[in-house]
């Protein structure tokens, strides 16, 4: 599995971010081709001190190729273009293969 992780910094208008994200952006995300699972949270906290991020989003794909194909698709480009409508504080996007562990 391959994961894309989006870390959102504090936006200019947190209420607008939450509303737009849930009602407009996530419905677009749900239609991403090849998307296996997704998760998000606005309740980002640090173990110590203040968290550097306002919100987090995770998307899982079968592999890196599936993620890249989804991002490059017309729908993926539409998802990316929509970010300016709510993420006024900026964001960081990283991706990585997920290694399962047991303990």
What descriptive keywords fit this protein?
33% helix, alpha+beta, 3 helices, 103 residues, Alpha-Beta Plaits, single chain
Describe this structure in words.
By secondary structure, this protein is an alpha+beta fold. It contains 3 helices and 4 strands. Helix 2 (64-72) packs across helix 3 (74-82). The longest helix has 16 residues, at 14-29. The two termini are 19 Å apart.
Based on CA atoms alone, the radius of gyration comes out at 14 Å
Going by helix content, strand content and strand pairing, the class is alpha+beta
CATH architecture: 2-Layer Sandwich
* Count of distinct strands: 4
Total domain modules: 1
Q: What is the strand content? A: 25-35%
Order the strands across the largest sheet as they lie in space.
2-3-1-4
What does the largest sheet look like? 4 strands, antiparallel
According to CATH, the fold-level topology is Alpha-Beta Plaits
Oligomer: single chain
Q: State the helix count.
A: 3
Order of helices and strands: EHEEHHE
Q: Please mark out the parts with pLDDT under 50 across 5 or more consecutive residues, or reply none.
A: none
Query: N- to C-terminal separation?
Result: 19 Å
CATH level 1 name: Alpha Beta
- Principal-axes geometry comes out as globular
Mean pLDDT: 96
GO molecular function, one term: oxidoreductase activity
Organism: Streptomyces chattanoogensis
InterPro entries: Dimeric_a/b-barrel, EthD_dom
Domain EthD: 10-88
């Amino acid at each position: 599995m391959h994961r894309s992780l989006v870390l959102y910094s504090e936006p200019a208008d947190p209420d607008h971010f939450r509303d737009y994200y849930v009602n407009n952006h996530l419905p677009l995300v749900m239609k991403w081709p090849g998307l296996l699972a997704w998760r998000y949270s606005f309740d980002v906290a640090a173990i110590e001190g203040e968290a550097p991020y306002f919100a987090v989003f995770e998307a899982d794909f079968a592999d890196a190729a599936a993620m890249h194909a989804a991002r490059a698709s017309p729908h993926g480009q539409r998802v990316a273009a929509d970010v300016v409508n709510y993420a006024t504080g900026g964001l960081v996007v990283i991706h990585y293969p997920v290694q399962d562990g047991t303990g």
